[in-house]
Amino acid sequence: MISIQAQKTAASLLLFLSLAVTPLFATNGLAQIGHGVKAKGIGGAGIALPQDAFTSATNPAGLTSLSDRLDAGVHWMRPRGSLQLIEEAIDPITLEPVTLYPEYISNRNVIWPEVGAVKRIGRCEALGLSIWCFGGFDTLYNPRTTPVSTIGPIGRTNFGMEFKQFAITPSWAWKIGNQQSFGVAVNVVFAWTSVKGLEYLLGTELSGPPTVSETPAYASNHGTDHEEGISIRFGYLVALPYKIDLGLTYQTPTWINRFKNYKGFLAGRGHIDLPSEAGGGIAIQLPGCLRATCDLLYLMWTDARALKNSPDSEELFGSANGPGFGWRDQVVVRGGLLWQPLPCVTLRAGWNWGRAPSDARGIFLNALNLAFIEHHLTVGGTFRWGSNELSFSYVEGFSHRLRGENQRFPVHRLSANQYSLAGSYARLF
Predict the structure, then answer these.
(1) Based on the structure, what is the number of domains in the chain?
(2) Beta strand extents in 86-218 (DSSP E only)
(3) Percent of residues in the chain assigned helix, strand, coil, to nearest 5
(4) Domain ranges, residue 92
(5) What is the pLDDT of residues 154-189, one digit of tens each?
(6) What span, in angstroms and rounded, lies between the C-alpha atoms of 158 and 197?
(7) Distance in angstroms (rounded) separating the CA atoms of residues 271 and 263
């Protein structure tokens, strides 16, 4: 059994998490590239390779492959976005019309914690509980060059959007025979959103252009709205001959209550569910203390109107068919290698690629989320002594650029890149 001291430690970590919910940032659309520090070291792969308590967020069937353990980690990320607009203005000296390209920068430091535990019940069952970052984004743009006009193309304030989610996930797995395992996890999701600085562009100011929102009072600058949601994940894991493991996973859409404070901006009157997803993975033991793994994941972003609706829609913002981010479903390929040169040392390297769900049509709206980075390089490692583990990972999201114009918004260029570090401690029982 887990000791009283371990239970107290877990309770303290849960309290810390409840007080330390911080902004998050997206990598594969709204989702992280993977869950847990170890998985991030191999490109986020984990459907067929359970490594820690956060496997319940990827494939809960993997819990039967783990011993009793407690994991706690901290992630730091620095995403950067650069948005260059097109603005028609009057030169104050010559009084001639000029075209300007003011640049706006979003540069944020993001920190979030996570904690999880696994408890075996007999030989065939295992229970899990984890609190983890489901995904999200947070941008706030500041002007780098000052437009000639007095108000500017956006509004009177810095602009951006925040949408973040944490999940509490109880999970259960059952092993059939020596080869097959089934698992199920319930994600209880807590989500927050806010929109800032779009009041002039959306026409919610009396001095601005005519409104383009169905409910102008609930389009921008209406504080932070908190809602809850739920989803269910199913998993399957099988061990084949020649040290090959295969895994399958499916997660239902995450049904989130409407964000009423922003029913004038988000299509469907504030309705923004998270997508269903399906995936498969393989892990193979290779000669020379090497192990390879690869996942193929399909994220169904078109489950949500606010994400899939065209940004060129002529309907009002917030209406059922109003403008959205213009996202399509996304295919993600992620994988990597694990090398164990010593019994107490494991090193990892991986790659993650996901086709950007957005394109140039939604270039301005997608500046609010920067969820279009496609390539990520990852490295990591674990060091063990006794019943203790220390792990780390580093992720580099390479710069990706969108160019184009949208009929509603005067955008010239949008680019984004990011990098992150993470560390975790685990106690095995």
Answers:
(1) 1
(2) 87-90, 97-100, 103-107, 110-121, 125-138, 142-143, 160-176, 180-196
(3) 15, 50, 35
(4) 4-428
(5) 555 678 888 989 999 999 999 998 899 999 999 999
(6) 6
(7) 8
